[in-house]
Amino acid sequence: MSSATGLIGVDWGTSNLRVMRIAEGGAVLDSRADPRGAGGLASGQFREVLHDVAGDWLNDGLPVLVSGMAGARGRWREMAYLPCPAGVADLASAVASPDDAPHVSIVPGVAVFEDGRLQDLIRGEETQVFGLDAPDDAVVVGPGTHSKWIRTADGRITDFRTFMTGELFAAIRKGTILGAEMGESGVDDEAFAAGVERSLRDPAVTAALFSVRVEGLAGRLSPASSADYLSGLLIGAEVAAQADANARPVILIGAEALSRRYAAALEQGGFRDVRIADGAAATAKGLWRIHEAAHR
């Protein structure tokens, strides 16, 4: 594999930016991060931020491929969502450049449509999926603020579903009676497992949520452990909702600690083939594969 840079890859999330020098084949040679995510930028600011972060890398005339929220509405250039099923070739054929940066290409998102109506969408995760060497008929799970459960078959994204688990967790902690005196999560694995079990047994999550208060009043759950129990309830509800996929391999892409929690919940829910992947490496390889397909 060549160690020379073949592509400048950009992963532009809502909150953060990562720019990578990518070798032929998709290996990351170097990377730089910046907190200026797409969520805080107007369309005319993206080019300047990219040059601030990696202007010296751009002087060599290398191709630049961007995935993520730079293609969202009101950002650098709005990119349409491709319908499922979608593969690498579909994405590659639909990349396009913003008006102020013809040397830059942006990857489109992918959407689920039912009877012509938009039902769900991803932007950025599609690139990670195609950077994985995933088995056929896998489920790729991206835990986070808006967790994504993405189903694949024959090298294409066939369907997916979004769960607002992370955002709901934060909102409950900050804005409801359940969050009063609640500690930080990540300290009590047993409380987390108890929350998962509660949701697997009864996936009516809005009813299950009140058990945070009930368990506390009954003396079975301490304030220090209640965040972990709440996390288990919400993640367990995700797992319960996707139980029909438990015979498929599951690949987790996300922060290490959160991915480990999801892996524990999945195993508790009867999923037997659960793997954790490197998200940055998957993004880089996915960008390379899309770039390669676009230039065949």
From TrEMBL:
InterPro entries: DGOK (IPR007729), DGOK_C (IPR042257), DGOK_N (IPR042258). The keyword ATP-binding does not apply. GO terms for biological process: D-galactonate catabolic process. Pfam families: DGOK (PF05035). Keywords: Kinase, Transferase. GO terms for molecular function: 2-dehydro-3-deoxygalactonokinase activity. It comes from the Bacteria. This is 2-keto-3-deoxy-galactonokinase.
